[in-house]
Amino acid sequence: xxxxxxxxxxxxxxxxxxxxxxxxxxxxxxxxxxxxxxxxxxxxxxxxxxxxxxxxxxxxxxxxxxxxxxxxxxxxxxxxxxxxx
Length: 85
Fold this sequence. Notes:
The protein is an alpha+beta fold. It has helices at 5-10, 51-68, and strands at residues 13-16, 24-32, 35-44, 73-75, 78-80. The mean pLDDT is 77.
């Protein structure tokens, strides 16, 4: 899965009221090594005040998720233990 270039450059993606009125989203990439393997995000009523705080918290959580993938080799959408194939 390739992240959009602009998302990689700024480190997060935001959406404001695209799907639902009064709903905003922010998401960050989850990385396994140099590869982006997923996105982790949250939907909130507004990003005006708390965007930086939310992005920071999401990055910490996404980093932790990425670390849990280390024992696995990620191929597409399948996680395979090294030596199992």
